[in-house]
């Protein structure tokens, strides 16, 4: 008889809750950082080219789109 393969340890309910809350924090922070970062870049480009408010608006839209994509990608992880 061959020995059985070692089984992986199961997560306790506390460990699973910590992992899921960590993913939620990461998703929320990523959404915020994307919007804030692209908004800041748009504001700086507007200052540089004196095109107020076009790049600021573009930064908000692009930041929201990228942030939402990352939010969904992180939130859909179930492992």
Task: Reconstruct the topology from this structure.
Blueprint: H1 13-49, H2 54-75
Helix pairs in contact: 1-2
Describe the overall structure.
With 79 residues, the chain is mainly alpha-helical. Helices cover 75% and strands 0% of the residues. It contains two helices and no strands. The chain has helices at residues 13-49, 54-75. Helix 1 runs antiparallel to helix 2 (54-75). The chain is rod-shaped and about 75 Å long. The two termini are 33 Å apart. The mean pLDDT is 89.
Features:
75% helix; 79 residues; 2 helices; mainly alpha
* Global morphology: rod-shaped
Termini separation comes to 33 Å
Oligomeric state, counting identical vs distinct chains: single chain
Q: What level of helicity do the residues show?
A: over 70%
Rg (C-alpha, Å): 21 Å
The number of strands is 0
The helix-and-strand class reads mainly alpha
Number of helices: 2
Give a concise summary:
This protein is mostly helical and 79 residues long.
């Amino acid at each position: 008889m061959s020995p059985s393969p070692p089984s992986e340890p199961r997560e306790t309910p506390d460990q699973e809750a910590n992992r899921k809350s960590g993913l939620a924090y990461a998703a929320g922070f990523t959404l915020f950082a994307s919007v804030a970062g692209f908004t800041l870049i748009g504001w700086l480009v507007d200052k540089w080219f004196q095109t107020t408010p076009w790049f600021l608006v573009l930064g908000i839209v692009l930041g929201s789109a990228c942030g939402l994509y990352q939010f969904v990608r992180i939130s859909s992880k179930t492992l």
